[in-house]
Amino acid sequence: MIKEWLEKIEASSSLEVLENIRIEILGKKGVLTAQFAKMKDVPNEQKKAFAQNLNEQKTKVHEALENKKTLLMAIALNEQLKAEHIDVTKFNSTAKTAAFHPVLDTMDKITTYFQNLNFSVEEGPLVEDDFHNFEALNLPKYHPARDMQDTFYCKDGAVLRTHTSPVQIRTMMSVKPPIRMIAPGNVFRKDFDITHTPMFNQIEGLVVDAEDKISFANLKHVMVEFLQHMFGDVEVRFRPSFFPFTEPSAEVDISCIFCEGKGCRVCSHTGWLEVLGCGIVDENVFKAVGYKDVSGYAFGLGIERFAMLIHKIGDLRSLFDSDIRLLGQFR
Length: 331
Ligand SMILES: [Zn+2]
Hints:
Layout: H1 2-11, H2 15-26, H3 31-37, H4 44-83, H5 102-116, E1 120-121, E2 127-128, H6 130-133, E3 159-160, H7 165-174, E4 179-188, E5 199-210, H8 216-231, E6 236-243, E7 246-255, E8 272-281, H9 283-289, E9 294-302, H10 303-311, H11 324-327
Parallel strand pairs: 1-4
Antiparallel strand pairs: 2-3, 4-5, 5-9, 6-7, 7-8, 8-9
Bound molecules: zinc ion (ZN).
């Protein structure tokens, strides 16, 4: 009997089969358990030997079951590991990589360009007071030029900054010249159409130094070099313009990168694309921050405008739609 049991245990192929064998032998209704029940019919003088024999069998069966169980568990674990094995060296061509948003990417390119020219990168608050956003920039109250910017006003008279120029004011009020800085960041205006969104990004630059060190020629040189870095071999022209915080002021065009100056829909058949504004810092701005005997130039541009031109995107609003089909093209 015992030999047969041990063979059966040895031959069992799974933990489930093994458990069934255990119940069959040692369970409440098991064959060996049934033997113990016969004890009461055994004559007294044979009882000891009978019990000893049964206990020996029980121990042997128990040991065999435990050994087999350990073995089968090890096999099961091995199989599980094999089934769940992951080859970390295997290349998954369907894995998706992320990419920078074209606006961030463009901002990064422009920022890096000016950092390489030793410009510092300055930041300021998005909610500004009237002084930093308007007054100090030669835009006194009721000045008609305030209408150039459709401003979001807060209840307490604060504004969502309409340009990054207040960062220039804050920087000038906290450090002494010379200054070479750019201020990238969000700005806000009440506008929404194919070329305007209520929030967009600007980069402004400011250079301040001793009076004899700054001229319009410096500004022109830096702008031409920068635009040719961004757009390749383009022609650059300066048109007289007006900004409250600079005098003289200029708007800067590049020859159309789509038609090479021949005239197309994007450039309204003029052959030119307007890309930035700049000028020599107005005396009143320096007065407002307490600077004396200095001169400076400033420039400002819309990041989205640059991103649209570089990536040939038609509608400004699509840059803010977060449409993965559009963004996926910039991977
Ligand atoms: Zn064109």
